[in-house]
Hints:
Layout: E1 10-11, E2 100-105, E3 109-113, E4 116-120, H1 124-133, E5 139-143, H2 153-165, E6 184-190, H3 198-206, E7 213-220, H4 228-235, E8 240-241, E9 245-248, H5 256-265
Amino acid sequence: MHTPRRAQGPRGPSEPKQVHPAVAPRRLLLRAGAAGLLLPLLGSATSCTRPEATSPTARDTTPPATPTATGDTTSTSPAPTTPGPATSATSGAGQPGARTLLVFYSRAGQNYSYGARTDLQVGNTDVAAQLIASLVDCDVHRLEAAEPYPHSYDDTVARNVREQDQDARPTLAAALPDTSGYDVVLLGSPIWNVRPPMLMSTAVEGMDLAGTRVLPFVTYAVSGLGSTERVYAQALPNADLGPALAIRGEQVAQAGPDIRAWLQRAGLLPA
């Protein structure tokens, strides 16, 4: 794994388990505060400034697994940083001003980093989500597992392997957001054992994204996008899948220029 509602290596997730707070209401769209460093993401759906960090037990980073990779990006775990506040937008898919929702899963804790292990206070995918929200106006919904993933990298890898082998759909801790009012949905996660965590399948299969522009982004340690595009294409046959972005977990703090270029390609920022 990596953080992501995680690169390669032997099979398994690379992020330590996430501890999700109490189940939130259906539209648990988290709004990042304009002030400051990574604060816990709390609250209901509002216009997004940037996603905020939560406690170090439900973050994303993709450390690779011993038999597979786990983490916010299956086998990666960069140091967290704090992106700036988000700007605003208003309408039209694929254009600046599109009504945009950012949905992501991230895991902190013990992660893979350049072949070793490191403890992340903020998951890699969480950091990427904050950077995105500092550039575009969006609502933010953070995914959490009803049964948080372990803090231990190896234990998370083992659980991810079981879930992939069983084609499981892990239960989410809170209701999914209503996506009917959005033109664009940004989907973020780590890469765990060459694909997004099974939790992301639970999420995309539970949201109505027909006709919606979907832009995936992942953090990884080894395998880049892995099978992300194929997984989402199969799960969302009626969605409009746009360009995807892969960010190396260990380097997520420096990913601002790549994120900006991706958002420009997708039409969410002016060139």
